Amino acid sequence: MTINRRALLGGMTGAAMLAPFLAIERAMAQHAEHGGHGSQAGATGSPSPAEQQEMAARHDQMMQEMFGDNLFKNEQVAMLLYPGFTALDLVGPHYFFACMFGAKVHLVTTEADLEPVASDLGLAIAPTITLEETPSDLDVLFLPGGTRGTLDVMKSERVLGWVSDRASRAKHITSVCTGSMILAKAGLLEGKKATSHWATLPVLADYGAIPTDERVVRDGNILTGAGVSAGLDFAIALVEQLRGRKYAEALVLQAEYAPEPSIKAGSITDASADVGEMMELMFSPVAQEFKALASG
To answer: Using CA atoms, how far apart are residues 78 and 74, in angstroms rounded to an integer?
Structure first.
């Protein structure tokens, strides 16, 4: 099947529109391989240009009817990159944000240039913009977490000043994992319900926040996600706020997000006692460092 994927991605639709076309492409290829006959499409292994246009128009109409004004918007999303961030905190939400038609996702580096920024485990991501160049008015301000890198950011007056400034006008102030520690250090969580990685969740109280042991926590325009993998649940919740339930549902299906872990140990209460104790001992020193910064 002859489809200009670049045109599709840059035009009225995006990644979601490719799914039905790729399914048709596979079916047509199989039909052609088995010597299909009876129509021009069967003979060539591809629908005619007129048939392609008709399918595209029908799909566009379906999306317009289902999503209405939520189909295409122009949200400005800023996702902070700093040395030592946890990649999965950012990558999961980025997938969902970047799949919103019309949204502009800025990968904002704390560094002086646009060199790739290495995560805590060495996965480097290329930023698109610096702190100073980031739009002043944002729809979404997003902060990923980490350990040593996050602690360093919390000691940076430059970065905290940027966070406070952009948050003062942002429609949605958000984080995943210990990214909420940065929000807390910037004074944005005082008196607010919030969550974090289980190891640092109690520490939020030292910053005047209300620790809330839930996967995703919303308090006004502040949305926080728990540790690492909770970024996916967080992102789905935020897309629903921004674009509505049907839009979020479509992206969940597109991502085939239906987790079935072979080991259910994603919380201290679910993990076996000996593993839980060992992990708590491992994280205790860094939790104490986050705690110490509350009074620093």
So the answer is: 13
Predicted TM-score of the model (pTM): 0.85
Chain centroid offset of residue 113 CA: 23
Are residues 63 and 88 both part of a single domain?
Answer: no
- Measure Cα distances from 269 to 51, 264, 278 in Å: 55, 10, 14
Alpha helices in 83-202 (DSSP H): 87-98, 148-154, 157-167, 179-185
User: Helix, strand or coil for residue 270?
Assistant: coil
Interval 231-254: pLDDT, tens: 999 999 999 999 999 999 999 999
Does residue 296 sit within a domain? no
Q: Which long-range contacts (CB under 8 A, 24 or more apart) does 188-196 make?
A: 188/163, 188/164, 188/222, 189/222, 192/219, 192/220, 192/222, 193/217, 193/218, 193/219, 194/219, 194/222, 194/224, 195/224, 195/225, 195/226, 195/230, 196/145, 196/224, 196/226, 196/227
Q: Are residues 122 and 168 in the same domain?
A: yes
- Could you say which DSSP state residue 232 is in? H
- Return the number of other C-beta atoms located less than 10 Å from residue 213's C-beta: 14
pLDDT tens-digit readout, 22-80: 444 445 445 445 554 444 444 456 788 998 899 999 999 999 999 999 999 999 999 99
Does residue 99 have an active-site annotation? no
Helix or strand or coil: residue 267?
coil
CB 24 within 8 A of CB 48: no
Question: Which of 28, 78, 151, 177 is flagged as catalytic?
Answer: 177
* Residue 263 belongs to a domain: no
